[in-house]
Amino acid sequence: MGSIEGKVALVTGAGSGIGEAVARRLDAEGALVAALDVDSTGAELTAGLLTRGMAVIADVADSAQVDEAVRTVVDTYGRLDILVNNAGIRGGQEADEAFGRLAARLEEEASGTPTTVLEATVNISDEAWHRMLGVHLDGTFYGTRAALRHMRSGAVIVNVSSICGLTGCAHIPHYSAAKAGIEGFTRAVARDVAPQGIRVNCIAPGYIDTPLGDVMAPVVRRDLERQISLGRFGLPTEIASAVAFLVGPDGTYVTGQTLSPNGGFVIS
Ligand code: NAP
Q1: Per the similarity annotation, which family is this (predicted)?
Q2: Which residues, in sequence order, are bridge partners of residue 35?
Q3: Which of 86, 129, 167, 188 is the most buried (most CB within 10 A)?
Q4: What angle (nearest 5°) sits at the alpha carbon of residue 265, between those of residues 259 and 268?
């Protein structure tokens, strides 16, 4: 018998990477898992890997779609005990270009004086800014609000932030702002709903091997690996372990916290 046997969990962004690993771990711990993703193929593939579970298709940046998705889960399973707000994007062309300039700068540093500047902030359009905040910060709010309408004492929410929210990542200021916002939101909501017996925490992963990082040039990856105390990127399953701790019986005295499995990239 798993540690969260019979609980109902909704995991956003479950069609890939960390979300898929979280869905599979919560399933292995005995939960009924709804795998939500904007990508129907990804959601259905993950749901197909679960012992019991369902796929839910929604864009977390759209509050009506999120409300509908949460209602579908509650109508199907009769309750909602766990929400993991994990869906995320890396940004569009502006983020890819900033990554490219970061790679160029690192090459220059290795061979002498660097001249390329990142120019990340000045190249973010209104649209890219709002989409980044829309998926991450609005999405976390919409999911949390919809879930809280149905959650009862003992329920748990885990929001997925990033080390970029803790320290700021120069090449993706909009992503860093969204993730820092999620951490502040987590602390406020944890205080809000504690009297109802509901816990809310945040996980701020370091660099994890998922499709989100596919755009990373080898020189950028090597530079990051040098800065990670454990010398390697993490695995999605290592983030799923942290989620399992927070939502399970070992995490019952933890609320309003940010837990950062980052291999010692950030130590404070
Ligand atoms: P991933 O492999 O790209 O998975 C993210 C999933 O979220 C994808 O299936 C994606 O679908 C889905 N998604 C994107 N926008 C959505 C939306 N509007 N509504 C619903 N689903 C949406 O990325 P990951 O690395 O697992 O990232 C998961 C979370 O961890 C994100 O919040 C990310 O910021 C955070 N994180 C990741 C790292 C890392 O190094 N990987 C580090 C720190 C934090 P599409 O593929 O169709 O876009």
Answers
A1: Belongs to the short-chain dehydrogenases/reductases (SDR) family.
A2: 11, 55
A3: 86
A4: 60
In tens, the pLDDT along 179-201 reads 999 999 999 999 999 999 999 99
Q: What is the pLDDT of residues 44-82, one digit of tens each?
A: 999 999 999 999 999 999 999 999 999 999 999 999 999
User: Could you give the angle at which helices 17-28 and 40-49 cross, rounded to 10 degrees?
Assistant: 30
**Which residue's CA is minimally distant from atom 17 of ligand 1?**
59
How crowded is residue 28: how many other Cβ atoms within 10 Å of its Cβ? 16
- Domain locations along the chain: 8-90+130-210+235-259
Strand stretches in the chain, DSSP E = 8-12, 32-37, 53-57, 82-85, 156-160, 199-203, 258-259
Distance 17 CA to ligand 1 centre (A): 7
User: What's the 89 CA to ligand 1 centre distance in angstroms?
Assistant: 5
Q: Are 157 and 85 in contact (CB under 8 A)?
A: yes
153-167 pLDDT, tens per residue? 999 999 999 999 999
Establish whether residue 213 lines the binding site of ligand 1, counting it when its CB lies within 6 angstroms of any ligand atom: yes
Rounded to two decimals, the pTM is 0.98
pLDDT of amino acid 1: 61
CATH class of 8-90+130-210+235-259: alpha beta
Half-sphere exposure of 52 toward its Cβ, with a 13 Å CA cutoff?
12
| Calpha distance 116→59 (Å, rounded) | 36
User: Do 163 and 176 touch, CB atoms closer than 8 A?
Assistant: no
